[in-house]
Amino acid sequence: MADDASNVDFVIARVFDAPRELVFRTMTETAHLARWWGPKGCQIEVAKHALKPGGVFHYCMRFAPGIEMWGKFVYHEISPERLVWVNGFADPQGNSIPNPMSPVWPLGVLNTTVLTEQGGKTTMTMSSVPIGASELEREAFLAGHPSMRDGFCGTYDQYALYLASLKAG
C-alpha cells in the first residue's frame, strides 16, 4: 500500500509504563481517545469511531474559541500487537481534504504502530509514510518531520500522563 518512499519514513518510539492490553485498549476505545489524542491544549470531539478494518475515527480538534481542525483515521489492521491506519485532514462531514496549513502535504499518511510488552511495560514504535504522494508532497512530509516529532511527542506525553492517571485511579 505504501509508496516506495522509505527515504521519507517518519519513526518514533516510546516506552509506556503499562501492559500492552491497557495500551491497546486506551489507544483504540472511543472514550479513551477523546481524553488524550491530539496536540497539547486541544479538546477532542469524536464525531464517529468504528474500530474495525475500513472503520473511521473522525474527530475535531478545538484549540481556542473558533479555532478547530478536523481529522480522520481509516483503520486497516487492528490487533493488540499492531495497528495500521491512514490518517489525514477532513471536513466536518468526514471527507478527506488537503492540510489547511500546507497545501502540498500528502492527502494520506499510512501509520503502522507496533506494540511489544516486556516486564509490564509497552514499547510503541510508530512509522509513518505518505501514500499516493507526489515528489513535492514527499518533500513536504520529509521537511515536516521536526514538527511531526514535536506534535507526536506532545501527544504521547499527554498519553503517558493519561495512562498514569488510570493506574493511580
From TrEMBL:
Gene3D superfamilies for this protein: 3.30.530.20
Domain Activator of Hsp90 ATPase homologue 1/2-like C-terminal: 17-158
InterPro entries cross-referenced by the UniProt entry: ASHA1/2-like_C (IPR013538), START-like_dom_sf (IPR023393)
Protein family membership: Belongs to the AHA1 family.
Name under which the protein is recorded: Polyketide cyclase
